Amino acid sequence: MTIPTTMRHIATAQPGPPDAMHVAQGPVPQPRADEVLIEVAYAGVNRPDCAQRAGTYPPPPDASPVLGLEVAGRIVARGASVADWNVGDQVCALTPGGGYAQYCVTPAAWCLPIPRGWSLEEAAGLPENYYTVWNNVFDRAGLKRGETFMVHGGTSGIGLTAIQLAKAFGASFFTTAGTPEKTAFCREVGADHAIDYKTQDFVDEVRRITGKRGVDVILDMVGGDYVERNLKCLALEGRLAQIAFLAGHRVECDWRFIMLKRLTVSGSTLRASPSERKAMLARELRENVWPLLESRKLRSVIHATFDLADAPRAHALMESSKHIGKIMLSVKPE
To answer: How does pLDDT run across 265-316, given as a tens digit for each residue?
Structure first.
């Protein structure tokens, strides 16, 4: 096929609200030796995209300034050292940026096959969430079969992924959400206990349900005053995995809980992780999680799909927190 020299993509002239984004024309990126060029069919919308657009999460120096950390589509070119993928292969992929565009480059080692029976739209919503949850919950926090686990924001993409993976690997599960509709949905996808944080104190509920024992692992994106409350919820030898600070990263906290309960607190950002680690995560996901996806033991939850030009509406919905599941962008060829 003939690859054009220019493409449509979403640009942001300067940091700002969702309507700061617009469709622009730019050059099609060229893959480096270890990269592939993907003709994008769908791109996932994620919180880091909103933070980058607002100017609070700049891309790495060598990454595309275009938003978008996950895509699905067809490989149309590959670098000289790429041997595992061929032109024409359909893949979903984690990207260093550049997903809100007709064409996107990413390291070949970050690509994964489309799970059998899954559409490109469904698969485009897998990489960012599954890489993040597997990295933090299973690799770093070491969640084991028979343990108890809690994630905040149970109806977010991260939350729904964490619920399903924890259940699939034999953990019992707590989550928090902000409406009766959302807590009911969390139970539907597998949560043993879904707590409405607007009407219930999740610390009291965890103590009550566990007989004051607490939970073994917590995955948190909220930060702020949740940090100390999470420490109170953890059992002896518990592990807190922190992946974002939506409510603030400067907190006043009684850290004695770490000593008294022998706790472990870890944190990570996927985008800043070494390329080799993301390649390792891709291999682990393909071995441990892709069979569950192909057997439909794990499901895709897509709340809405917008055309690429409607990226401002997609970001406004993301920031409203009214969605349940993933928000996607459809990138139609010209």
So the answer is: 999 999 999 999 999 999 999 999 999 999 999 999 999 999 999 999 999 9
Distance between CA 279 and CA 288 in Å, rounded?
14
Matching residue, tokens 């005053």: 225
In sequence order, the β-bridge partners of residue 93 are 71, 111
Tell me if 149 sits within 8 A of 190, measured CB to CB: no
Rounded Cα distance, 234 and 163, in Å? 18
In this predicted structure, what is the pLDDT of residue 334?
60
Rounded to 5 degrees, what angle do the CA atoms 61, 305, 284 make?
Answer: 55
Q: Which two tokens stand for residue 121?
A: 């739209």
- Tokens at 148, concatenated: 């108890």
Token readout for 256 is 């004695």
* pLDDT at residue number 69: 98
Q: Residue 17 carries which DSSP code?
A: S
DSSP state of 144: -
From CA 160, how far away is CA 4, in angstroms rounded? Answer: 38
H/E stretch holding 320 reads helix 311-320
Spatial distance between the Cα atoms of 98 and 7, rounded to a whole number of angstroms:
12
What is the reported pLDDT for 137? 98
Is 97 within 8 Å of 69 (Cβ atoms)?
A: yes
pLDDT of residue 234: 98
Residues of the chain scoring pLDDT < 70? 334
How far apart are alpha carbons 84 and 78 in whole angstroms?
10
pLDDT of residue 333: 72
How far does CA 211 lie from the centroid of its chain?
32
Pairwise CA distance, residues 81 & 89, whole Å: 16
Give residue 325's identity as a one-letter amino acid code: G
